[in-house]
Amino acid sequence: MLNDREYCLWLSGLRSMSPADRQKLILLLGSPADIYNAEDVVLLHLLNEGMIKPETLEEIKTTRNEEALKLREREIAGRCGILTLQDPEYPELLKEIPDPPVVLYYRGDISLLNSMTALGVVGSRTPSIYGNEIAKAFVPVLAGAGLLIVSGLAMGIDTAAHNAALVTGKTVAVLGGGVDICYPQRNFRLYEELCSNHLVISEYPPGVPPLAIQFPQRNRIISGISKGLLVIEARKRSGTLITADAALDQNRNVYAVPGRIGDALSEGTNRLIRMGAMLVQGPEDILEDLGVGNSGKKKTKREQLTPEERSILKKLSHVPVFIDDLFPEDTDNWRDKLSILSSMEARGLISQPIQGYYVTGSCRM
To answer: Could you read off the pLDDT of 209-264 as tens digits, one per residue?
Structure first.
């Protein structure tokens, strides 16, 4: 006899069913175990009522093999972690959506999903310089304030968001295929870093290729595990807006960075703002709305500052200063620079009125 996890793995592996189809069957019959053990007469009734497809009926009948399923469970467990909808560690926010994944397959630290407040960050796969700069400016501050950055590992804003989060915090990639398949391949080094020190998740079993039809389904998970969703550049018709629509349906906070009128990459974000998304001009807007961190309102004592931070504050006033002028000439590691400045921004010590230029924040020394 199969155990609860094996029943969930079986249901998750039925390729003829969408996530909504699986959830509908669970609501109708009770549990993955009840679906597996349903009598043929029950399945035929569901078929005749249009509640399942002919190919689903056939797949259910032909995959009910306990020995093969137990072997499959051992194979999967050797390749990735497994978290089922019935496990207490399953993310509470994700349970709230209409069609939560029956199984989450993962590599990395799954505890991140329940130990941190998550923020989805999505946008164009072909962003402008402006879009990339927004991601690089916003995300380190948001991650540094304690938000878990969630995105999809795609090129463009997704990649920029993951890389920026690595500087100051933690990040999660939600894949459109199995967690053992990096897509796109050019992000393989980033993928390996996330598997080792952050988190990669998917609702698709290992070995499932990243098919185009699966990415819209993947997007609901990005918003589903997140308390809010930040959108940076989106065309009028795009996968980014599919994610934003899912977030709105799931009653998540949606934040949009405004763009230039007439710019195709701004049409989606400006439309979201017209629909009621919160217009954000800086990461502090999001932190304040989510009630995370100090949102730049708490003061930091001088004795809590590092020597580098004290040196930076001495060079700043209300006149913007370029980033390179804040550090000694022999400091050429941009990651170190960005990490220090992002931390100071998150604590309200400094702010960035113009990209790459800094002024003193709300906390004067």
So the answer is: 999 999 999 999 999 999 999 999 999 888 899 999 999 999 999 999 998 888 99
Beta bridge partners of 322: 357
Burial of 213 (0-12, 13-18, 19+ CB in 10 A): exposed
Give the residue from 121, 196, 192 showing the smallest Cα distance to 154. Answer: 121
Taking the alpha carbons of 317, 320, 324, 329 in that order, is the dihedral positive or negative? Answer: negative
> 12 near 102, Cβ under 8 Å?
yes
For the record, the structure tokens of 230 come out as 């930040």
Tens digits of per-residue pLDDT, 157-188?
999 999 999 999 999 999 999 999 999 999 99
Considering all CA atoms of the chain, what is the largest pairwise distance in Å, rounded to the nearest integer? 79
Q: How many Cβ atoms from other residues are within 10 Å of residue 52's Cβ?
A: 23
Partners of 279 in the β-ladder: 256
Q: Which residues contact 299 (CB under 8 A, 6 or more apart)?
A: 348, 363
Tokens (6 digits) for 257: 């960075």
User: Can you give the pTM of this predicted structure?
Assistant: 0.79
Crossing angle of helices 157-168 and 188-197, in 10° steps, is: 40
Over the Cα atoms of the chain, what is R_g?
23
Cis peptide, bond prior to residue 184, ω within 30 of zero: yes
If we measure between CA atoms, which residue out of 287, 254, 288, 249 comes closest to residue 268? 254
Tokens 């703002």 belong to which residue?
Answer: 273
Spatial distance between the Cα atoms of 25 and 136, rounded to a whole number of angstroms: 43
